[in-house]
Give the backbone structure.
Amino acid sequence: MSAPLWTREDFVAGAGGTPRGDLGAEITGISIDTRTITEGETFFAIKGDRFDGHDFVGMALEKGASVAVISVDKYDGLPKGGRYLVVDDPLKAMERLAVASRARSNARIVAVTGSVGKTGTKEALRLTLGASGKVHASVASFNNHWGVPLTLARMPADVDYGVFEIGMSAPNEITPLVKMVRPHVAIITTVQAVHLEFFESVEHIAKAKAEIFKGLEPGGVAILNRDNNQFDLLMFLAKAENINEIRTFGETQNADSFTESIRPQAGSSAVRARILGEEISYTIGAGGRHHVQNSLAVLTAVVELGASLSQAGKALATMHAPKGRGEITVLHLGEGTAELLDESYNANPASMRAALSVLGEAQVVPPGRRIAVLGDMRELGEDSDRLHAELADPLLASNADAVFCAGPHMRKLWERVPQRLRVMYAEQAADLEDRLLQEVKPGDVIMIKGSLGTKMGPLVDALKTQYPPKDDSAAG
């Protein structure tokens, strides 16, 4: 029988506060969402932008929550006789529990940040480290002010490796999070022109990403992208934090870990690389050169964390791009199939170029076509129109045969798309749906990408509903 995540005594000591009622002796998990909470878990009543968790405390207790962590100023208005831990602020209590979780752990910890590739790199680390021991990693993109402490608080005491994704959209957001995580290894995948609405320049973005160095454990290792334009600045900022152990990755031999050959295949890549001096050949079960580059960072971290490089290389063959971030689905159209590349979760200039590159690598047999369905990239500030227009060259390089565009900024790209490739432009992504469903034919490869706020995801869902995969195995 496995040990509980937290005993009542350790939980109360870690989170702080005053117990009220008959708290469960064992806590099996940590939840902030009554839709998914299960019996024995603790419910933290966090107040968010749209909802206040205190409104759902009664439901959490009815579903068997071992305890609800509540704010002292809400106590009198909650159901009497409940199982409560009364605290100053539930989010602060979860942060304290996160710190306690890190303090009790002997795991080797890696943290990942970067303008693009955070979640894919985090998932690749989960996969590769899992070949050498027990791994705990954040679910989905739990990389913000509540996602990071939640992930830490959920970390079992006996794991061998912890993997944490840390994001930001403004300065001074990474620092408090990485100081909770205290990684032994920190990866910056790349620094690109994202969130420009909130930053003066890409250099300012680099400085914000470099906050990850502030929580690195003494003697820890920073892993940096040698091919990135901000490399010199990041190297300087790492040294300014007295980090002496710096490893680099890239596609040229002046990096510590580099590719010797890359052979793109349908939905995958065969790679030969040298990782910190050791040669390795492996296959990545997801297409795209960006996955290849990030795999170098992943394998470098594996070595630095003391895990098996050879087992990690084998594990990468089973890697698949997650939903919204390159997931491949085979659509069944009756008389044939089409392939859907789901990149609908988010978009910025760097990730848009990467997705178009994957579309260009797709194997298409005539009369099949490459169809690009592109929505606005958000948070790019006054450079937004220019950055959208500059996608014309990578779009043409992808050998796209048909183009759909949605959003006011994407019109700037639409105006540069050759007439022969244009299918439809709309201000709203939803207005593309009917035409897109009519346009898809057997043999086509459809790539859908845009920022979350552009709402490209429903187009993915519409295609899957109209042309459903035969079974779950049809999804990559």
